[in-house]
Amino acid sequence: MAPPTRSRVDLVLIALSSPLLLGVYKEGVLIESIESQDKTSEALPSLFQKIMDSYHIDRIFFARGPGSFMSIKLVYIFLKTLQITKNIKLFGCDGFTFNQNRPIKAMGNLYFVKENGKIVTKKLRPDEEGRFELPGRLDQIRCSEEISPLYLLPAVKV
Questions:
Q1: Long-range contacts made by residues 22-29, C-beta under 8 angstroms, separation at least 24?
Q2: Quick check: is 156 in a domain?
Q3: What are 2-45's pLDDT values in tens digits?
Q4: Which of 69, 94, 102, 122 has its CA 20 to 30 Å from the CA of residue 15?
């Protein structure tokens, strides 16, 4: 008897800050959401192993920055490896896609903000920071085939 066919799904991954968010989408609709407080390096392998045991992944949409430099780097290397080894299509989005265009923590009291299509850093209060959320439907987000990390580090003042 043949093993059961795994459902074909798409994923959305947001790992710019804690918690890490992973959404599973079937026919463009969110069917499962996973949240992890673990470090990105620990969360990615275990979460993806569970997902790949249950589903066949067609595409992954992910936040490529700005945010935690280490998370951005780890996510890119991890997903690029999956793209090469499993032939999964990747699509990158800027992080503002997932937090209603609110500020994203950079470091200290500096936050990334998007103004007139350009990402800059500004000093803000923590209560102005946006919370990341998985979209209910994939047609609610705009991503592209540009997947390179979006590293934006503010200048260090001495």
A1: 22/47, 22/51, 23/134, 23/135, 24/51, 24/55, 25/137, 25/138, 28/137, 28/138, 28/139, 29/136, 29/137, 29/138
A2: no
A3: 556 789 999 999 999 999 999 999 999 999 999 999 999 999 99
A4: 122
Q: To the nearest whole number, what is the mean pLDDT of the chain?
A: 91
146 inside domain: no
Q: CB-based burial of residue 22 (10 Å sphere; 0-12 exposed, 13-18 middle, 19+ buried)?
A: buried
CATH number at residue 112: 3.30.420.40
Residue 88 tokens, joined: 């999964």
Domain that holds residue 71: 7-136
pLDDT above 70 (res 154): no
The pair of structure tokens assigned to 107 is 């470091």
Question: In this structure, are residues 139 and 113 in contact, taking their beta carbons and an 8 Å threshold?
Answer: no
Q: 154 in a domain, yes or no?
A: no
Give CA 145 to chain center in angstroms. 14
Tokens of 1: 């008897």
Tally of structural domains, the chain: 1
